[in-house]
Amino acid sequence: MLLTITTTANPATDLGRLLRKHPDRVQPFEQSFGTAWVFYPEAGEDRCTAALLLEVDAARLARSHAGASGDASLKQYVNDRPYAASSLLAVALGKVFSTARSGDGGERPELAAAAIPLEIALPAVPCEGGPDLVRDLFAPLGWEVEAEAVPLPGFGTDSRHVRVRLRGELRLADALSQLYVLLPVLDDAKHYWVEIGEVDKLVRSGGAWLAAHPRRGLIARRYLAHRRSYERAAHARLAELAEAAEAEEEAPVEEESAVDGEQSLPLHRIRIAAVTEALAAAGAASVLDLGCGSGKLLAALLDDARFTRVTGADVSSRALGMAGHALHLDRMPERRRQRLQLIQGSVVYRDKRFGGYDAAVLMEVIEHLDPGRLPAMEQVVFGAARPRTVVVTTPNAEYNARYGMEAHQMRHADHRFEWDRARFGAWAEAVAARHGYRVRIEGVGTEDPGAGTPTQMGVFDRD
After folding, report:
1. CA 74 to CA 62: how far, in whole Å?
2. Check whether domain 2-193 has CATH 3.30.1490.100, yes or no
3. Full-prediction pTM beyond 0.70?
4. 344, 336, 240: which is closest to 292 by C-alpha?
């Protein structure tokens, strides 16, 4: 099985930095079913190609498959698995290029955040659906697709194999994640055990691009080996991602400036200053911004030398791209760049990358969650990640009348709820008690004697 990735970005040899595989070396990676090799057929400043070659041990694969299925027939030894790019290649790609697929740019985050010209070539892919399905799956993702049926030698003239070439300008991490998901979808025959954990892999790897894909139903069905209960779980989570992506397109109803000219600064800047000061007062040096959006808080934290490690996480790859652009990753000074990381992840699903921070921030995030998802968020942030300090801000519904809003009207089209001060205080106290934190509630913005402040903030400190 062979996959090649080519770029003409200058310098093209930066492909080696993104893949974390040196162009001057041939590197083997042992798999349970064979050996994966990474090498570079060409590596120049103007053009660089990385190749992933998977040598399948047919006997070892047949033994493992027979043990799982009870089938020890000859067809387990004589088939197209050693030659055609199937789910086995997706497994190898996921392991060999795991860091690149996560979008972690290490010392060069601007490389990982940038879209670059890419050409992906797969000489033979087993495809139940032929060239048309290849185009249906990859064209909506921005690829120029070439796909043609090819007979695989020894397997007849009407074989189901397709030669695929993709050209486009994407982040390498997005391209790898798309291949990781879609190779087994094309084949429609996974060669390893499928269990509920595959739903997590699908949602994490597919993210927002899969949530918006016109063939997401077919993708989920095939990726999850036609298991109905897994499909339902995947569709529910993908629907959440689709709603989050749509929310990015909506303009907020909330007034950003203060009411009646009482404040000289917009509310969002006052909010950022309040959060930053709360983090500094807690002595936090490493901060995780959950739901970082376009990166306004990240910029403020990077401007403050007290914060030595700053990570922005968002469920939307589009939001992360906007954050990278707003933060000028492509020309950010090296010392500042080393303090920053951007990762894709959801606040309602456990993620080991969320651990190890002094503080976590959910700034204007919780009101975008369905109330039924709040317990999941609570377990992820306060139960699993457990930073020393958590800062949560959310609109104060009592203040909305000061913006001329009608009763029950909310400040943003995607808000699922907005709490008054009593409701937010009760929720915060209950969360703190369940997880061993103390919490203090503060107001942010100009205070109205009857309505309080426009934003309410809870600062949780772990006992």
Report:
1. 9
2. no
3. no
4. 344
